[in-house]
Amino acid sequence: MVEPLSALLASAVGVLVPEPRPLLLVPVPSSRSAVRRRGYDPVGRLADAAAESLHRSGRTAQVAALLSVRRGVADSAGLGAQARARNLAGALHLRQPGLAAVGRRWRAAGGVIVLLDDVVTTGATLAEAARALRAAGVCVQGAATVAATRRRWQTRPRI
């Protein structure tokens, strides 16, 4: 299952950054408990496979796990956009202070930093990841995901 999804993720990165600049792919981290439960980090695995796919197409791409989860968050299923944002506020941070230099050097050399995630629902997770990197002085070009959920708009009942 990783191969077709990582190819989609690599394609999304290619659309986001069509010029042949070096890519630093930063996966959004899973919580330690989720990794233990699954036995692996799905977004990290997708990021590694997407980088390989990008390499095969002639792109320079490297994965850097710059972020980690600072604190637990509630299950976001059933939460709206504002509640998800509050739930995630401050939850991510740089894994190690020295890692900010990796991102800054990458950008100084003309590279592009792209956040990666599997699914975007409201954008709260990607926004929190970008916030955490900005707080460390790392500028993110954009984000790519495998899929996005459809927004459910509340409609008025018909009378």
Run of helices and strands? HEHHEEHEHEHE
Strand order of the largest sheet: 2-1-5-6
Q: Uncertain regions: pLDDT < 50 for 5+ in a row?
A: none
Level-2 CATH architecture: 3-Layer(aba) Sandwich
Largest sheet composition? 4 strands, parallel
Shape: globular
Structural class: alpha/beta
Name of the CATH first level: Alpha Beta
Q: Could you name the CATH topology?
A: Rossmann fold
Rg for CA atoms: 16 Å
Number of domains: 1
Report how far the terminal alpha carbons are from each other. 46 Å
Compute the number of helices: 6
Strand segment count: 6
Describe this entry's structure for a reader.
The chain is of the alpha/beta class. The chain has one domain (2-146): Rossmann fold (3-Layer(aba) Sandwich). The protein has six helices and six strands; from the N terminus they run H-E-H-H-E-E-H-E-H-E-H-E. The chain has helices at residues 2-16, 32-38, 42-56, 81-88, 99-108, 124-135; strands at residues 23-27, 61-63, 67-69, 92-94, 112-120, 142-148. The strands form two sheets. Strands 2-1-5-6 form a four-stranded parallel β-sheet, with helices on both faces. The protein has a two-stranded antiparallel sheet with strand order 3-4. Helix 1 packs across helix 3 and helix 4 (81-88) runs parallel beside helix 6. The longest helix is centred in the N-terminal third of the chain and has 15 residues, at 2-16. The mean pLDDT is 84.
